[in-house]
Amino acid sequence: MATSAQRIAVIGLGSMGFGMATSLLRAGFAVTGCDVSAGSVARFKAAGGQGAASPAEAVRDAEIVVSVVVNAAQTEAVLFGENGAHEAMKAGAVFVSAATMDPEIVRRLAARVEATGHLYLDAPISGGAQRAAQGELTILASGSAAAFAKARPALDAMAAKVYELGDAPGQGAAFKMINQLLAGVHIAAASEAIAFAAKQGLDIRKVYEVITGSAGNSWMFENRVPHVLEGDYTPRSAVDIFVKDLGIVQDMARNAKFPVPMSAAALQMFLMASAAGMGRDDDIAVAKIYAQVTGAPLPGAPKRD
User: Fold this and answer.
1) Domain end call among 106, 132, 167
2) Residue 218 is part of a domain; what is its CATH number?
3) Between the N and C ends of the chain, which has fewer C-beta atoms within 10 Å?
4) Catalytic residue at 206?
């Protein structure tokens, strides 16, 4: 249990950040939240936290700063933009970055932070909004021993599993991109399979029952296909997340001259869904593209003209 002297700033109070911030509150930390949405800050204050108007204000008294934004550009803005966190951070504070991004960009940001005597922990997350709210995320972290030591109380409050994956920022990001490669491919494959089953005239609820008990199952099939069965594409993780993440995989692979045809094909399906106006839908909305193109009868999917 944290003492009242242990202060944490959480920057980014979206579906993941809000759950992480409230998990820290339950663990006894004094938590200040910051978000571009005033409504999100107000919601966090109603949950018992404190609010701040800017990253600089949020981090002023914090020993630990947890950044839960979407990408590298937002992380850089949080750190070095107008009213950014970097210059306002206490000496020796640790910046814990949860965003998924290219490992090379992580290394560049970490070098800028560490050059001024602060600590940087590369700590991308996995698990979804529900696990964030329960304090049961998986965190794929890398950084110095000092960064781990400083951040450890917060990590333990937010996660069920914390993997220590190296002593330098960038390793955590690389592990996360392997996870995202597999996750994106599995979602695209699940979308293709359930739409193909519907086109064959099969009872897709029975297909779900059979496949989840068979060798063709995957975690993503089991987790995402129920959204298709209910015709509910409320975003738990959005299509555009995988447009971004599989795009990063392509960039990394091109630089390494490593072929990634499976993830390239999956990326095209996410791009197609995004171009069709589904970018903010749940990532399994890729199934709606198959339905739209082929006429496969899926609940909540647009009908083919």
Assistant:
1) 167
2) 1.10.1040.10
3) C
4) no
| CA atoms of 294 and 290, how far apart (whole Å) | 6
* Residues 150, 182 share a domain: no
> At 250, is the secondary structure helix, strand, or coil?
helix
Q: Is residue 181 located within the same domain as residue 158?
A: no
What contacts 276, CB < 8 A, 6 or more positions away?
Answer: 288, 289, 292
Is 268 contained in some domain? yes
Given 176, 244, 257, 288, which residue is catalytic? 176
- What are the tens digits of pLDDT across the range 8-42? 999 999 989 999 999 999 999 999 999 999 999 99
Dump pLDDT digits (tens) for 125-159. Answer: 998 888 999 999 999 999 999 999 999 999 999 99
Q: Which residues contact 177 (CB under 8 A, 6 or more apart)?
A: 100, 102, 103, 245, 248, 249, 252
Question: Are the C-beta atoms of 70 and 244 separated by less than 8 Å?
Answer: yes
Segment 272-278 mean pLDDT:
98
Question: Domain residues for 151?
Answer: 7-167
Q: Is 144 in the same domain as 183? A: no
Alpha helices, H only, the chain: 15-26, 38-46, 55-59, 72-80, 103-114, 128-134, 145-158, 171-199, 204-212, 219-230, 239-256, 261-273, 286-294
Interaxial angle between packed helices 204-212 and 171-199, expressed in degrees from 0 to 180 and rounded to the nearest 10: 130
* pTM for this entry: 0.91
Decide: 13 and 35 in contact? Cβ < 8 Å: yes
Q: Is 81 helix (H, G, I), strand (E, B) or coil?
A: coil
Question: Angle, nearest 10°, between helix axes 15-26 and 38-46?
Answer: 20
Of all helices (H) and strands (E), which one includes residue 125? strand 125-126
- Does residue 105 contact residue 72 with C-beta atoms inside 8 Å? yes
